[in-house]
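user: can you give me the structure for this one chain? tokens are fine.
assistant: on it. calling the predictor now.
[tool input]
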Amino acid sequence: MVTPEAEDSRSSFERALILTIVVFSGAVYASTQTIILVSLPQMQGDLSASIDQISWVVTGNIVASAIGIPPTAWLSARFGRKRLFLFCIGCFIVSCLLLSASTSLEEVVIWRIMQGLAGAPLIALTQAISLDIYPRRKQGMAMAVWSVGLIVGPVVAPTVGGYLTEVGDWRLIFLAMVPLAVFSFFASLAVVPEWASDRVPRFDWFGFAAVTFGIGAAQLTVDQGQRLDWFESTEIVVLTTVAGLGLYVFLAHILTARDPFLDPGIFRNRNFSVGLFTMFVYSPLIYIPMVLLPNMLEDLRDFPALTIGLLLLPRGLGQIAGLSVAGRFVGRVDCRKLLMASLLLQAFTTWAMSRWDLGIGIWDIVWPSFLQGIAMGFIFMSIITITYSTLERERRTEGAALFSLVRNFGTSIGISVAVTLFVRFATASQASLTERAGPFNELFRLPENLNPWDLGSLSGIAMLESQISRHADMVGYANDYFVMTVWALMLIPVAALARNTVPGR
């Protein structure tokens, strides 16, 4: 077991080595959450699955990840942080091997659920370890490195996944993860230390059951809501009821139980609570462009998968640059001001994206994506610093688990909202454009439009309908980006609620 005195005696090289190994391990798992997205069409055809059925490959993993995060702090205290870390990596390796050998949709869904349950604690554990191996004055740098791996990994993964899918098939994606995870396991076994736990709390089974049902049902609701037309579906109504009841029972339980599953006292720390809320609201802005941009470029610009993957890289490179620079600032600059300025830059980039039209070129995509990545690096680092700046060491594993939970849950809700808004915006725009596409519209009398949009022929009508649909979708994407602009601006006042993160100022 490692004591605080032993931690202080570590050399810079030892700390850097531990940090590198745990960040690499977390990045390998985090990459599986996005690397599979580009291979879903091939997987759907290979497994003879419908769109609704293949969505469970993603949904099952998301729900399992949400359920696997809450017990992380108790499992860490009960079995040891290092043992839990190694166990999760081992289960992740087994799930990748089983996925690479799967021959049916049922097998894929089951092993993806196993992958989510096993991998979910890894993110929280890597963050807690990265914080604990460094003194406070160097934690900003440690979080910068951690953030690079855990955010940029999922950004780069779709490009790698697209290449692997083209040269092989979807099973190759999971098989390629195995040697990386095996290296992570043995490297972690060799260098990651164990931490002593002050006490092992009693496991609150009732609280765990309540939060499991609540979070699981909530994740299913936001993931399946758009597909099932929200509250027009009985299934969504039932899931929402279960989610509300489960979370209500959990909240009432932790406030009244003697030894609850989650100690509500952690929320009395103002910076921690402000940081959690900010991360919950901001987290969708990290991943929504990754969901919208590939579909937009493929459907409206006919870009190939490899080109789309390459166009996601400037955002990742911007994140690396932003995180690297931000890691040097967080110990000397009040992160509240840094967060406000970065949110303004984020809002500017999404406003620029809201000005896109069907004629956008490569440069129009690259420069706002790069600047957005820089803003995201500063924002993410500022939020992490605010969240953990005043949190006690013994609460870090619990705090990191909550941080991962709200980030995942906020991302799911935000993406669902963004997709729903896109459908509504595009539908309304298509209805408006169709209403104006009649023979009495002067545009159809212009010489250049007489031939391609001949309303007297079926081909002319079909071409017109196609153009209307494309323009309506573009309006939907542009309006979504504008909503993201307002979204970022609304977060600026929240930053003022936190305490100064620079000691003595």
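assistant: here you go. Residues 132 and 393 are 7 Å apart (CA to CA). The two ends are 36 Å apart (CA to CA).
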